[in-house]
Amino acid sequence: MGRKILIVGGVAGGASAAARLRRNNEEDQIIMFEKGPHVSFSNCSLPYHLSGIIEDSDHLVLMNPELFLKQYKIDARINSEVIKIDKEEKTVTVRRTDSEETYTESYDKLILSPGASPIVPKFPGIEDVNLFTVRNVVDIDKLNRFVKQLDNKEVSIIGGGFIGVEVAENLSKAGFKVTLIEATKQILRTYDYDMVQIFHKAIIDHGIDLIVNDKVERFEKNQVILESGRAINAAAVVMAIGVAPETKLAKEAGIKLGETGAIKVNKNYQTSDKDIYAVGDAIEVYNVLSSTYTKLSLAGPALKQARSVADHINNKETINRGYIGSSAIQVFEYNGASTGLTESLIEALGMKIDYDIVRIIISDKVGLMPGASPIHFKLIYEVPTGRVLGAQAIGRGDVTKRIDVIATLIKFGGTLDDLKDLELSYAPPFSTAKDVVNYAGYVGSNLLNGEYRQVNVDKVRELVERGEVFIDVREKAEFVHGHIKGAINIPLSEIRDRINEIPKDRPVYLHCRTGQRSYNAALLLQYHGYQNVYNVAGSFLALSLYEYYNDKTSNREPIVTDYNFN
Q1: What gap in Å lies between CA 163 and CA 449, rounded to an integer?
Q2: Strand pairing partners for 377?
Q3: CB-neighbour burial class of residue 3 (10 A; exposed 0-12, middle 13-18, buried 19+)
Q4: CATH class name, domain 454-554
Q5: With helix as H, strand as E and coil as C, how does 495-540 read?
Q6: Topology agreement, domain 4-42+51-115+244-313 and domain 126-241
Q7: Which residues of 49-58 are buried (b: 16+ CB within 10 A; e: fewer)?
Q8: CATH architecture of the domain with range 4-42+51-115+244-313
Q9: CATH 3.50.50.60 fits domain 333-451
Q10: How sure is the predictor about 62, in pLDDT bands with cuts at 50, 70 and 90?
Q11: pLDDT average, residue stretch 268-294
Q12: 12 pLDDT exceeds 90?
């Protein structure tokens, strides 16, 4: 005789758990409750409805209750909110959101996948603006319909996380005048400050007014008032500052919460009640790199958790190796991906770890091929072991495959030597013969072995203002079109004949366009007895991208005569 399994939440984790449960057992009765009118919709795709990339909001819905019943023999009940769990009686109370009818349903096993809710602080004057959040199909349809009938095209987005950035981009593509407001110094905290400047530049280049380091203080009639005193006109405001796990139902049932405030689960995603499981945005997970518990609002982990729960309920072996956090985003013409630790996270958590970075710029495919473009790549590794801890990649080409390689390497405890040794597929339209991840392994190994020293672009302004010596080893024509103020141009092709022009009694900082020629120059100078030579990682291209946004928005004095972005 089959069991009765109830699932709270019909998106991502909930829907995946239901489908896997059915594949595991044909006899179980499976009932899934979703308080909204849709199940199994693509919540990660919601912002793309605003630009028309996804024309019809109905296309965001991947399944419906009828298909669930016909294909999987799953009873998917929409407009059905579970409002109470009775652990002793093993029942839930369900309220119909379209009729206020309530009823109880018993269970043998219960799976919680309620997700997370947008955080909406009670700012003064919040009732004076047209406020929206983005969580489901109803939300995005409501926002889209409202803004499309506006005469005033000014829209403000509050919060620079994934949802905020994607909503801002898609509204901008739809012709709206968009302001994106972020309280901290940068958007997208899964990237370090030196890397995220590429996204900052792309956003303002496309006409979005990006405001960072300024908090919302209050609202007035169709205006956002910031802590700085600046007033932003906004016919619509989208609140996207973050999400909070939906824990009310679990908490009221006496289910234990973890140190993060999300639901605490064990290896098999069981809660403090052995017959109740939880998955997705509502739970906390273990980060194997930081050795801390964290909240992880990503679809991939939710689907893995759902599969594990369904398997555990059916007495199948499951694994839980913890999480490292891998994600991707598109910001206009740039693609970004990241995995594992960032420098900012290491600092924020106060981790006692000795690490170094690799910062390189390598073409995503053979330069002769149409569409070849640079990949900006940053790798973080442990000293002295060389263990890879994290990576970030931004470029116009395929960055996700590179970060996926690193994510796989991290999962298996890989090192810089492993990265060097990876055999990856190659053809000129897809990559270079030594892919960017291989290069990262080579560069990291050289640094770890003390073969040369480097300085990252985020340290260059301080060095320039201090009057340090910079040698630009690019050719003269490149130098003329933009260089560091005060830099001396000694091309790599001339450096052997002009080596006496380079001082030996003080630090020397070498750079080229991306760091490869200046790396060769550094080795040459070391061979000739120079002891205090540094290569600028990422060099002039990375420096231009790093400096540009803050130069333009703060009106500070540039340290370059002109920027090079190609």
Answers
A1: 41
A2: 360, 393
A3: middle
A4: alpha beta
A5: CCCCHHHCCCCCCEEEECCCCHHHHHHHHHHHHCCCCCEEEECCHH
A6: yes
A7: bbbeebeebe
A8: 3-Layer(bba) Sandwich (3.50)
A9: yes
A10: confident
A11: 96
A12: no
**Domain 126-241, what fold?**
FAD/NAD(P)-binding domain (3.50.50)
Per the document, the length of the chain is: 566
Q: Residue 255 has what pLDDT?
A: 98
pLDDT band at 566 (very low <50, low <70, confident <90, very high): confident
Q: Any idea which residues carry the catalytic annotation?
A: 512
Residue-range domain boundaries for the chain: 4-42+51-115+244-313, 126-241, 333-451, 454-554
The CA dihedral of 30, 36, 37, 42, to the nearest 10 degrees, is -80
DSSP per position, 313-324: HTT-------B-
Which stretch of DSSP H or E encloses residue 144?
helix 137-148
Task: Using alpha carbons, select from 203, 206, 117, 130 the residue that is nearest to residue 160.
Answer: 203
Say how far apart CA 390 and CA 116 lie, in whole Å.
26
How far is 157 from 165, CA to CA, in rounded Å?
Answer: 8
* pLDDT at 168 > cutoff 80: yes
| Contact yes or no for 179/209 (Cβ under 8 A) | yes
User: Containing H/E element for 202?
Assistant: helix 193-205
- Residue 202: half-sphere exposure toward Cβ, Cα within 13 Å: 20
Nearest of 73, 304, 211, 59 to residue 550 by alpha carbon: 211
- Phi/psi at 403 (5° precision): -70, -35
Residue tagged 């830099």 (tokens) = 487
Listed residue (173, 156, 163) closest to 214, CA to CA: 156
Q: Helix count (H) and strand count (E) of the chain?
A: 15, 30
- Residue owning tokens 């909070």: 244
Q: Which residue, among 538, 480, 481, 482, has the nearest Cα to 509 in the 3D structure?
A: 538
| Separation of alpha carbons 188 and 316, rounded Å | 38
Q: What is the DSSP-derived secondary structure letter of residue 401? A: H
Taking the C-alpha atoms of residue 518 and residue 361, their distance in angstroms, rounded to an integer, is 13
Read off the tokens for 539: 């060099």
Taking the C-alpha atoms of residue 221 and residue 226, their distance in angstroms, rounded to an integer, is 14
Q: CA 231, 237, 240: angle at the middle one, nearest 5? A: 110
